[in-house]
Amino acid sequence: MDIRRLLTDSLDIAFKNNPEAVAVCVGEQEYTYRDLYQQSQSIAAYLRAQGLTPGERVAIFMENSWPIVPSIYGVLYAGGVFLVINHLTKTHKLAYVLQDSGAQFLLSDAVVAAQFLPVLTQCPELKAVIYVGATMAADCHKPLVPLAQVLSTSVPVYLKPQRINLDLAALIYTSGSTGDPKGVMMTHANMVFTSDSLIEYLRLDEHARILCFLPLAFDYGLYQILMAVRLGARLIVCKSFAFPAQVFNEINRTQAGVFPGVPTVFSTLIGVHQKSPLCFPSITRVTNTAAALPPEYVPILKTIFPNALIYKMYGLTECKRVSYLEPEDAERFPTSVGKAIPGTQIFILDENQQRLGPNQMGTLFVRGAHVMQGYWNKPVETAKMLVGDLFPGENVLCAQDQFTLDEQGHLYFCGRVDDIIKSRGEKVSPVEVENVLYRLPGVREAAVIGVEDPIEGQTIKAFVAIDPDSGLDEKKIRQFCTAHLENFMVPKVVEIRDSLPKTDSNKISKKELRS
């Protein structure tokens, strides 16, 4: 019987069952499960030989590429805790994450040496850098070891992680939109459970071909790897969505079947489609998270992906995923982000932690084996997110997001606790206003915030990015809102921009809009 307690168990099983199956495609290059297993073992053997002990952290700092995948599993086989850092991270933030995590080793790439070399002297716990690419020489007082050397000299010895499922597997650093990045602590049990739950509701099997152009530093991208290995399926890695035509070519060339995206990606996709129609019949699953998918996008996406089930989802790094909407329910519940994922529970509480009835706005709480263990080195912040007095002996996650829950158990996102706008004595959901803005032809991106006002408490301000030939202006946008929203919800100010600022995870940055 195949028993999976640790993340590495899935790779053990995939290698044992079908070692010559393709695990990862990067461009024309294909890597088998034998390649993945053996390279992971070589990395693990090197880390162990250099003194890595169980539970110590190893940072991975490189763009989407093949070496990330064996690096992750190599750290796990060595008994370590991995953290993947976005390769676009600036030097000061990189230094903070390395220092905060206490990383013992850094796996990186010579192409980002200008970012990591200056910080090495600030990280006394860091023992060495293992890097991909051309040989480097630098006076950084740390050993610089080519990954090719590690793979050629560290003979796989079939190491076991010497861990149990309650041990940490990863630190997943948040983007830091509310301050310094926080390392979300996830155990093997957390991540194995979550992978299985995602696979169940997405109805995936070993034949899946999972496309990933999302940053692997973020949980949405990371779990594409974990799901593929869990299934013994194929992962198709693209560097990013910066050049959509390259991604489109990869879909057609590889016959990719799973397309994970975010609203900004779908906005770009739809924009291209409107100029030159797109159609990708090989895609059978389209998933969205990071922000609400405007209901108006769904019919267009069904045209672009005619054979796909389209999943709206909601989650946060602290538990990976909270809910999903069954694709068959997309038209019945167009503004919902669905029900709790398999094996978990959700409920809505008021300010006094009392349960609210159907359709009452309150704070979302989440139960399940996917809930984080806390934030690394941040007990105060952890106490705000994990509530220990609702169920005996259990920490429940406070999502810090406002929702309503209908009679059938469907969630409706209203906004972050801090985003809810209080205007003229009314509570306004910025998402509700944004959904109306997205219904206006010509609007590509929309974000709504509250602006302090001495009389109304807060007034509503909308930021929109429009198509150049749309003919829209502030007056026309406000007129559309007036026709579709209650008076107190109509934006008082509309600011038109060429594009809206984004976070590292490609969400619209309301923090930057407020500054």
Main attributes of the structure:
single chain, alpha/beta, 515 residues, 5-stranded mixed β-sheet, 15 helices
Can you tell me about this structure?
The protein is α/β, with parallel strands linked by helices. It has 15 helices and 26 strands. The strands form 7 sheets. It has a 5-stranded parallel sheet, with helices on both faces. A hairpin with an 8-residue loop joins strand 14 and strand 15. Helix 1 (7-17) runs parallel beside helix 8 (219-231) and helix 10 packs across helix 11. The model has no long low-confidence stretch (mean pLDDT 91).
| Percent range for β-strand residues | 25-35%
Main sheet attributes: strand count, strand direction, barrel closure: 5 strands, parallel
Count of distinct strands: 26
Instruction: Identify the strand order in the major beta sheet.
Output: 4-3-5-6-7
How many angstroms does the end-to-end distance come to? 56 Å
Model regions low in confidence, pLDDT < 50 over at least 5 residues: none
Annotation field: number of helices: 15
List the helices and strands and how they pair.
Blueprint: H1 7-17, E1 22-26, E2 29-32, H2 33-49, E3 57-61, H3 68-77, E4 81-85, H4 91-101, E5 105-109, H5 113-116, E6 128-132, E7 144-146, H6 147-153, E8 168-173, E9 183-187, H7 188-202, E10 209-212, H8 219-231, E11 234-237, H9 244-254, E12 258-261, H10 263-275, E13 285-288, H11 297-304, E14 309-314, E15 323-325, E16 339-340, E17 345-349, E18 362-367, H12 379-385, E19 386-391, E20 394-405, E21 411-416, E22 421-423, E23 426-428, H13 430-438, E24 443-453, E25 457-466, H14 474-484, E26 493-497, H15 510-514
Parallel strand pairs: 1-11, 3-4, 3-5, 5-6, 6-7, 10-11, 12-13, 13-14, 25-26
Antiparallel strand pairs: 1-2, 8-9, 14-15, 15-16, 17-18, 18-20, 19-20, 20-21, 22-23, 24-25
